[in-house]
Specification:
This protein is an alpha+beta fold. It folds into four domains: 30 residues, no CATH class; 113 residues, Roll (Chitinase A, domain 3); 121 residues, Chitinase A, domain 3; 198 residues, Alpha Horseshoe (Serine Threonine Protein Phosphatase 5, Tetratricopeptide repeat), CATH 1.25.40. The protein is 32% helix and 18% strand. Strands 1, 2, 3, 4, 5, 6 and 7 form a seven-stranded antiparallel β-sheet that branches. Strands 8, 9, 10, 11, 12, 13 and 14 form a seven-stranded antiparallel β-sheet that branches. Helix 6 runs antiparallel to helix 7, helix 7 runs antiparallel to helix 8 and helix 8 runs antiparallel to helix 9. The longest helix has 26 residues. The chain is elongated, with a radius of gyration of 34 Å. The C terminus is likely disordered. This is peptidylprolyl isomerase. It catalyses: [protein]-peptidylproline (omega=180) = [protein]-peptidylproline (omega=0). InterPro entries: FKBP4/5/8-like (IPR050754), PPIase_dom_sf (IPR046357), PPIase_FKBP_dom (IPR001179), TPR-like_helical_dom_sf (IPR011990), TPR_2 (IPR013105), TPR_rpt (IPR019734). It comes from Dendrobium catenatum. Its main location: cytoplasm.
Length: 512
């Protein structure tokens, strides 16, 4: 071995005696006595794990998991400093109940794994459960991870907690019903009051029959479904849920008071994955599409726009793998895809994401620039976003493209005009006396609150229509209140001001 590769190396980590021949070629004879699989847990080599016996599965403890493990410890010289206890240690991961380095090492272990975790003094922090005497440069912890209970903070704020009390079959999360599926569960619901009142039990109140429901359709409380999606078949979990993810935003049972925190004990009996479209003929695929689309329309009518959008987008993703075989199938396919895009656009409008609604409409118009319904829906999105000129262009374009759409376009233009008049009315109220003020007071006047605007300027909230219905139903039910934040200061107060100043050959008010 050349000198620069052994002890003459610039940063050689091993020192040699002064009379050692560091500057000559050396011949090394090496016999490997043993080796082990190791994992470097910390980059500075302060925590290293030597694997003795492989564990089961791939899941490792994480924050809030409840861990059960046999633990002993030796000093670097082999002296025992933590003997074997009569019972394994129980601790909550992430709560600093054991030294930091030991917890870091256990965080890389699978169930039933046996390992030696080498921890240097910088990672031997004080802990409530295991105390290591000071003065040790390194400690070797022998650990057997007996079991851990999965505890998940579903929202990240400690309000919705899922605690697994009985393991299911399969590997987490690959064998969980992450996709929309038909689920079968038994559950018992309790109020988190002093009496812990049981308000429903499928085994007692449903003739012993389990609850069957399709996920992704808003058929159970949101917190319930979020947790079931992360369960394995046969698993039993206890869910602690706050009111806003339980029954305050869902049809509440008569014996559950408003604002109630609840606990569900859920057993996932099994689930059926959605039908695979591979091998289906075109007509069968369209039948499946119609079922999903009908569910999406129901969710839209119920005001569950996020869930409805997810249904439409699911079909659009599947459409990437559908290949029509003739012109007739191609026409049906394109019409269906366009309708789904427009349904997504309608969801975005109801969710207040008007720019995304415009972008979704453009996906239809890129392929068919004269698609009247897409132009109408884009015009409504422009109007709701306060882009009045763009909206006017779309509504006028409808009339020139299709005379039959003229009543709907005129109705939309009338609403647009009404909105502009209402905004001008607000502008006059805001600008009244503005120019009598000193220059330094103008900005203050412009920032006065508009909370006391006339009630007649607020549009009534309409009932959510079916997104597939015609333009007329859309026109009669769209809430056209424009969010002020989407407009500039002058445009918000005086929408027609730009047109007036443009008529005088000026693009802005020189006074302001």
């Amino acid at each position: 071995m050349k000198p620069e590769l052994h002890y003459a190396e610039v940063d050689c980590p091993v020192s040699a005696p002064e009379d050692f021949p560091k500057d000559v070629d050396l011949h090394f004879e090496i016999e490997i006595l043993d080796f082990f699989k190791a994992k470097i847990v910390s980059e500075d080599m302060g925590v290293v794990k030597k694997i003795i016996d492989e564990g089961q599965g791939w899941e490792c403890p994480r924050e809030l998991y409840e861990v059960e493990a046999w633990i002993t410890a030796k000093a670097a010289d082999g002296k025992m400093i933590l003997p074997l206890m009569k019972n394994p240690y129980h601790f909550t991961f992430g709560k600093s109940e054991i030294p930091k380095g030991l917890e870091m090492g256990i965080g890389t272990m699978a169930k039933r794994e046996k390992a030696v975790i080498f921890v240097t003094d910088s990672y031997l922090t004080n802990s409530s459960l295991i105390q290591i005497p000071e003065g040790h440069v390194e400690v070797q912890f022998e650990v057997e991870l007996v079991h851990f209970t999965q505890v998940r903070d579903m929202l990240g704020d400690g309000r919705l907690i899922k605690r697994r009390i009985h393991d299911g079959k399969g590997e987490f999360p690959m064998d969980c019903p992450l996709q929309d599926s038909l689920l079968r569960v038994h559950y018992k619901g309790l109020l988190l009051n002093e009496e812990r009142t049981v308000f429903y039990d499928t085994r007692a109140d449903n003739n012993g029959e389990p609850l069957e429901f399709c996920s992704g359709e808003g058929l159970v409380p949101e917190g319930f479904e979020m947790c079931v999606r992360l369960m394995l078949p046969g698993e039993i979990s206890v869910i602690t849920c706050p009111p806003d993810y339980a029954y305050d935003r869902f049809k509440r049972p008569a014996n559950v008071p408003e604002g109630a925190h609840v606990q569900w004990e859920i057993e996932l009996l099994g689930f059926e994955m959605p039908k695979d479209w591979t091998g289906l003929n075109f007509q069968n695929i369209m039948d499946e599409v119609e079922k999903i689309k009908t569910t999406g329309n129901r969710l839209f009518k119920e005001g569950k726009y996020e869930l409805a959008k997810a249904k439409y987008e699911k079909v659009l993703r599947e459409y990437n793998h559908v290949n029509p075989q003739d012109d007739e199938e191609g026409k049906t396919f394109l019409n269906s895809r366009n309708a789904l895009h427009l349904n997504v656009a309608a969801c975005y409008q109801k969710m207040g994401e008007y720019r995304k609604s415009v972008e979704t409409c453009n996906k239809v118009l890129d392929a068919n620039p004269v698609h009247v319904k897409a132009i109408y829906r884009r015009g409504m999105a422009y109007m709701l976003n306060g882009d009045f000129e763009e909206a006017r262009k779309d509504f006028n374009a409808m009339i020139s493209m299709d005379k039959s759409s003229e009543p709907d376009a005129n109705a939309a233009l009338q609403k647009l005009k009404q909105l502009e008049l209402e905004n001008e009315k607000k502008a006059r109220k805001q600008f009244k006396g503005l120019f009598d003020k000193k220059p330094g007071e103008i900005s203050e006047a412009g920032n006065k609150s508009t909370d006391n605007d006339d009630e007649d300027s607020q549009s009534p909230e309409g009932k959510s229509p079916n997104p597939d219905e015609g333009q007329e139903s859309q026109t009669s039910s769209v809430d056209v209140e424009v969010p002020a934040k989407s407009l500039g200061f002058l445009s918000r107060l005086w929408p027609s001001g730009r047109r007036i100043f443009a008529a005088f050959g000026s693009n802005r008010c020189s006074i302001l």
